[in-house]
Amino acid sequence: MDAQYWNDEIETMPRAGLESIQLIRLQKLVKRMYDRVLPYRDKMDAIGLKPEHIKSIGDLRLLPFTVKDDLRDNYPFGLFAAPMSEVVRIHASSGTTGKPTVVGYTRKDIDLWANIVARSLVTAGATKNDIVHNAYGYGLFTGGLGGHYGIEKLGAAVVPASGGNSRRQVSLLRDFGSTVLLSTPSYALNLADAMEAVGIDPKNLSLRIGVFGAEPWSENMREEVEKKLNLKATDIYGLSEIMGPGVAQECQFSKLGMHIAEDHFLPEIIDPETGEVLPEGEEGELVFTTLTKEAFPLIRYRTRDISRLYREPCACGRTLVRMAKVTGRTDDMLIIRGVNVFPSQVEHVLMGVEGVEPHYQIVVDRKGNLDTMTVEVEVSEQFFSDKVRRLESLGAGIKKEIKDYLGVTTTVKLVEPKSIQRSEGKAARVIDRRKLS
Ligand code: DLL
Q1: What atom of ligand 1 comes closest to residue 329's alpha carbon?
Q2: 93 lines ligand 1 (CB under 6 A)
Q3: Ligand 1 centroid vs 217 CA: distance in angstroms?
Q4: Could you tell me the domains of the chain?
Q5: Bridge partners of 250?
Q6: Tens digit of pLDDT for each residue in 419-432?
Q7: Is the sign of the CA dihedral 308, 314, 318, 319 positive or negative?
Q8: Per-residue pLDDT band at 1 (split at 50, 70, 90)
Q9: Is 136 a pocket residue for ligand 1 (Cβ < 6 Å)?
Q10: Distance, CA 50 to ligand 1 centroid (Å)?
């Protein structure tokens, strides 16, 4: 039988053992940062904190946070904790505003990352016998190369497809008999469209597992993707600042969340307003401390992602804490006439409606002093060609559902199939014209 775990000792370790490993690593990390990263040392000095004050995992909360602006202020390499002569790879995330976020890796970091992604793939149910089609973008984005090294480390065969040229990708999936697909969930849907366009039935492909992440996606979207691609869709989470893909991965048994590679990334959930650590199980902003990275370690990095942590035992036997599916970001919350709206909530409503396709966009604007929100969503071919009255009642139904669920009045625009711009990577769900003017 193929291994169920990549590293069973760590993945199933009793919590007390795991926590003592975390503490030793944390103490070493704090010392490394204090000695080598001047901006972080300044932050610690400003509150009179020395590395030797960290005596327990609970002392983590004494340490100052790191935020995105710290990275920008020290652009590009100012927070690196290793000399450039030891850095062998640089990635960057474009970000929507300002300078990109730049991250670096030593050879050991790259090896660690490959191991963690291999662990993710095994957690998703993949084995060395799989053929893995990697449609995450290759380049500065961490998805492509991060996935690539992990697939090779697992010993599976990697097809480095990157993003784009969906029809060709579909032929490759068919011809090579790929069994695992890595991509953003929105690009997976793109591939499903391309299959339909060229007349390939996913049932005739060999795909069995999807490892989808890099953007938020709802449970309803999972159902859509599973149905359209005839595979089991699992969620993978990560961010460049912490490492890239593989920070957490869903196992085959849990829809309660993704197992965090906690031996390397120590999670906390805080109140985004006050910065206080929240009680176990509560929803808030996810914060990570990297325990083992050399080139670009971070202490208490505020991800802005909203999630919660579960420590209950999992049916898969892993003792690693789980994080709930990310429901949004503290910075993607739209405030529409005073009502807080997360794009993921709109997606939740839309994906529950029959006749609606999983392609949508939220356009926010301001008329006079009033915010307006328009939800543009594609309807299925069959609905679109139907009587106008049926379309109207579909639109009115969606409007009512959104009003009931979110408490905000929207304009719903039903648009033709395939008219909303498709993504090759992360989907752009929101167009905020208020910011543009
Ligand atoms: O998106 C790394 C990655 C690549 C993860 C491939 C998974 C698969 P960044 O470009 O730095 O890194 O973007 C990180 O994307 O803070 C989240 O807001 C979002 N994100 C990543 N994974 C998920 C997920 C990569 N599974 C940002 N669910 C993060 C929801 C996700 N959001």
Answers
A1: 18
A2: yes
A3: 11
A4: 1-331 (3.40.50.12780), 334-436 (3.30.300.30)
A5: 258
A6: 999 888 899 899 98
A7: positive
A8: very low
A9: yes
A10: 33
